[in-house]
Amino acid sequence: MRLYIRLLAVVAAMTVPLQAHCQQVDDQISVDADDWPWWRGPNRNGIAEANQDPPTEWSASQHVAWKSPITGRGHSSPTVVGENVFLATADEEQETQSVLCYDRETGQQRWQSIVHRGRLMRKNAKSTAASGTPACDGERVFVNFANGDAVYVTALNLKGEQLWQTKICDYTIHQGYGASPAVYQSLVIASADSHAGGAISALDRVTGAIVWKRERPKEPNYTSPIILNAGGRDQLFLTGCDLFSSFDPLSGQTLWEITGATTECVTSTVTDGTRVFSSGGYPKNHLAAVLADGTGEIVWETKDRVYVPSLLACDGHLFGVLDAGVAVCWKSDTGDVLWKKRLGGEFSASPVLVGDLIYATNESGETFVYRANPTEYEQISVNKLGDYVMASSTICGSRIYMRVVENVEGRPQEMLYCLAKP
After folding, report:
1. CB of 77 closer than 8 Å to CB of 391
2. Is-contact 357 312, C-beta < 8 A?
3. What is the DSSP string of 348-389?
4. Separation CA 150–CA 172 (nearest Å)
5. What confidence score (pLDDT) does residue 8 get?
6. Residues near 231 by Cβ (< 8 Å), separated by ≥ 6?
7. Where exactly are the structural domains of the chain?
8. Phi and psi dihedrals of 12, rounded to 5?
9. CA 339 → CA 303, 374, 378, distances in Å?
């Protein structure tokens, strides 16, 4: 594989700083340990707070604390902060894209805030116009939508009132848009990749002013920007467009970048602290471990197809579910496969790790609960809920929040379930 590194000194001039005197906000983010404030959870890696006790068995009639109907369709995961649960949704009949807020304790819908009316884009039938997960800093809710040939980030207060809206870039739909915003210190960071070109931008959380912006290649891609501490520092990772890129999240400067990955990625990067792991699935299957120290050294790579569900990195091991329904455990330093187990069905939702248990849900609504055991596949339970599931589950405060589709009188109806032990 051809490899190149872009040195920081070379690319510093390529970063476009804008609104240098924009309002600065307090870096403090007001979320608690039992919240799930953004895509892939508090640490952005799919690993939930270990000190909790969610159920390992459930059904439509067992361990259901509450359930509530969802207007429209979406693949957004539930975002849980304080007393609220937030979802993005799109009603194709009404031509609206909205954020919904539910009471965390009762499931009662508190409000619906319509962000866009009309101009919904055509897409792959498996996608939706509300596939990105909202982020919440404790005071504001941030959501990304592709609408009318552009991508916008919108901020709402906790009452659902719009605070600001900023265009990130023009956008040409390919399969669909699904990138989630990332909150970091005073910034909210969003990205969009398409045939029309794209961008990754950092916005001031209070004003929506663009703090920095980087142009992206003219390639379709669907992954979310993810901030992880790797190689001894916080790095902003973005894969796809045939690149694996690392940026300084505060300045937007490129720390390192290598050719590789593949063109279209959906999964979010994970790390074991020393290596970062990228995966994609079109036009080629790709899974690779890259040193996070800036050298760009590819430690190992395989042709496993981990295209949509993101990975889990834990205690020197990498756990994942292939799109085709095979659970795998790799040794994170060598890429050696320690075990494989066919679960069945197709997977799009990303697995969640709670303590030593992995929760992985297929598109038919079957959730496989098994131990993060590097020696063998050790199943705890299989639980069926709903008829169709694309959204990743949220697990916090000993509760599981699942967005599922049920067939009601021959029509699909999305439901938000809260599962808990008595």
Report:
1. yes
2. no
3. -SPPEEETTEEEEE-TTSEEEEEE--SSS--EEEEEE-SSB-
4. 8
5. 34
6. 273, 274, 291, 292, 293, 294
7. 88-222
8. -55, -40
9. 16, 8, 11
pLDDT at residue 23, as a whole number: 39
Query: What pTM, to 2 d.p., does this model score?
Result: 0.93
- First-to-last alpha carbon distance for the chain, in angstroms, is 54
Task: Show the tokens assigned to 18.
Answer: 């804008």
Q: What is the rounded distance in angstroms from the CA atom of residue 117 to the CA atom of residue 72?
A: 13
pLDDT in tens, 8-61: 323 333 344 433 333 334 467 999 999 999 999 999 999 999 999 999 999 999
pLDDT of 240-259, one tens digit each? Answer: 888 899 999 999 999 999 98
Rounded Cα–Cα distance for residues 293 and 308 (Å) = 26
**Paired residues of 11 in beta bridges:** none
pLDDT of residue 9: 29
3-state secondary structure 87-106: EEEEECCCCEEEEEEEECCC
Hey, what CATH topology would domain 88-222 get?
Lipocalin (2.40.128)
* Alpha-carbon gap, residue 339 to 317, rounded angstroms: 11
Omega of the bond leading into 283 within 30 degrees of 0 (cis): yes
- How much is the pLDDT for 10? 30
